[in-house]
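Support case: flavin-adenine dinucleotide complex. Customer-provided input:
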Amino acid sequence: MTLNVVKGKFMWAKLTKKEQLTEDLWKMWLKPEEKFDFKPGQYCTIGSGGIERAYSIASSPDEDQIELFIELVPPPDGNLTPLLNELNVGDTVTMRLRAKGIFVLKPEFKNHVMVGTVTGVAPYVSMMRKHLNESESSDKNFIILEGASYLDEFGYDEELMLLDKSNNNVTFEASVSRPDEERNDSWTGYKGRVNNILLDRLDEWGLNPSETIVYACGHPGMIEDVKEKLENSDYTFLEERFWKD
Ligand SMILES: Cc1cc2nc3c(=O)[nH]c(=O)nc-3n(C[C@H](O)[C@H](O)[C@H](O)COP(=O)(O)OP(=O)(O)OC[C@H]3O[C@@H](n4cnc5c(N)ncnc54)[C@H](O)[C@@H]3O)c2cc1C
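Agent response - structure generated as follows:
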């Protein structure tokens, strides 16, 4: 029996692959039972045990699986993520039939500055996978600035560094917020929270603010701070908060 027949809003999606990055961070790939249309930057809503949550999609709409990048919120605070963390390949989750969200690429801008914390990089990965090679993107600039506590939490740094190397119009920069901790001993990149280094980086990149959109995704505290910092500027700002502070 398919769930969508019963309720009209859901379908099943099967877990086909899981990749554990750290104890509390993993990527997972879902194969929905029906075609799932979405725009890069949008999110899907999945559930288990009657609990549903939103997840930004990291895959491109051209891929046949839905790729998610998920952080565990340990119990007793977290509700769905402890359940998702226990899933094995072959298990199923519910998936709402429609993707949602307006956190999508705004093609009217020349410069796209994408700021994210850890799993907040997911929508940018989808945008880059889909839009980078389209002809209308050739005169646009894409800068991804990702922040995390530790160097092993970026998730897509290899893929984004490769894009940076092979495309003149792509820049990937990453910053760790706890540079003095042993886990970050080998870190040679930027240091500090992305919201604290953003204004300096914008100065350095030298983008015309009126041609630039700054996206911010992930941690609500980071987003609030970036929003405040850009408030009286000519930069356009678009946000996706993953939870309420
Ligand atoms: C549009 C949208 C897209 C999202 N995309 C992603 C995504 O790509 N990857 C992802 O991991 N999460 C994403 N989230 C968050 C996700 O929906 C869940 O809230 C999160 O996975 C925690 O679920 P939970 O049921 O375990 O805990 P919840 O019951 O949702 O939350 C428990 C408590 O933890 C807080 N909280 C929620 N998430 C975090 C976190 N990451 N770190 C610290 N505290 C948190 C909540 O405010 C709450 O107080 C997104 C949320 C939204 C609204």
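DSSP finds six helices and twelve strands in the chain.

Case will auto-close in a few days if no follow-up is received.
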